[in-house]
Amino acid sequence: MKNGKPRHLDISPVMVELLQELKRYQAEVKMANRTRYRGHGLVFTKEWTDMTKKTDCLGDPLQQNNLGQREFARVLKAAKVRPIKFHGLRHTSATLALSAGVPIKAVQERLGHRNITITMDVYAHALP
């Protein structure tokens, strides 16, 4: 949600399959650790390696720095790509979409910008 409005994003069938696999894994962890698991309905949650405080539970939200520093850095290293900040994915996605000819209105809606001029100002370099 951005600017108080929910957004719907199209994802590939492969991504749907991966998310379903993650959901199955989380259900197994929850069943095996009923007293140490709090379900919040989140996609990315704390696992055993994230349990640093007595009050931590499996299934709790990840701290922002964990996602950005530890998990994302591991993904970048495995993919053998140039390190970028997590928020850089948003910029990269928008730039690639515009470069591929996706209408700027569609990119604006995906990013959640209230005004199309914001999208145009930030991503003009990617427009044909």
Description of the molecule:
By secondary structure, this protein is mainly α. It folds into two domains: 13-79, no CATH class; 88-126. Helices cover 50% and strands 0% of the residues. The protein is built from five helices and no strands. It has helices at 13-32, 64-79, 88-99, 104-111, 116-123. Helix 4 crosses helix 5 (116-123). It is elongated and about 55 Å long. The protein starts with 12 loop residues before the first helix and ends in a 5-residue tail after the last helix.
Question: How are the secondary structure elements laid out?
Answer:
Elements: H1 13-32, H2 64-79, H3 88-99, H4 104-111, H5 116-123
Helix pairs in contact: 4-5
- Helix and strand content put the structural class at mainly alpha
Query: How would you spell out the order of helices and strands?
Result: HHHHH
Overall pLDDT, averaged?
86
How many domains make up the 3D coordinates? 2
Major sheet details: none
Primary descriptors:
128 residues; mainly alpha; 50% helix
Brief rundown of the structure:
50% of the residues lie in helices and 0% in strands. With 128 residues, it is mainly α.
